[in-house]
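Mods, move this if it's the wrong board.
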Amino acid sequence: MPPALVTDAGAARAGTPTATVRRARTAGRSRLSPRGRDRVIAIATPIVLLAVWEAAAQSGLIDARFFPAPSSVFDQMITLMVSGELWVHLGASLQRLFLGFWLGLVPAIVLGVLMGLNRSIRAAISPLVSGTYPIPKSALLPLILLIFGLGEMSKIVMVAIGVFYPVVINTMAGVVQVSSMHYDVARNFGAGRWQVFRTVAVPGAMPSIMTGIELGAGLGLILIAIAEMVGAQTGLGFMIWNAWQLYSVETMYVGLLVVAILGFGLSILLGAVGRLLMPWRRS
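Not the wrong board. Structure tokens:
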């Protein structure tokens, strides 16, 4: 055995500093995996930005009347949480978002798959989807209020519209991109339309479907805030708008922060759902 190997083996058995340093390096490499680094960066970035914002507000570099320090915003958030006002508005927005999400998601997936599988349906529906998609969804709010009134249904429909378009477009694109060989194999083995739909079209288009769902959920969150600013007495959008009218800047920032946290939470949740539905893409 070469002398260097003998020395290393003896050092490892004796617990010398050389062996300790090597073990520390190995442990450091295992801790700093790519996923671990990503998590550290994701956590550190908002903390650093908040710290810079706090320092700028405290030192007077920015006008605290319009950009209050994060510490005062968090203090106001705790006050609203203790009083229960924040939970009332958050619960109202979550309920509308949940109902509108499913109201837009289910028909969008069904229609998107049908458009991807059937050329005639795609030729008939695609121009309608492409023509109405560029219309600003917020511009539809007066029409939605005219049809459904100021009740809960108008907010739910706004969310459903926001979810529908990204999901139907991405679902159709995902189904079309599935290789025709997979459909031919399924039909050659006697698969019916429902089996082709369930075992070929939907799994093959699932990555595109999940992308559309993530985009739709984000757009739905934006639209529910806009709808609540106009025709609601509860909800995060109403809280933000009412705070602007009362010039309660900290409360307005609390609403914006909660919306941002909701968006981040939805992204994490949908990412976890995507990993469950697509185990082959977990790596």
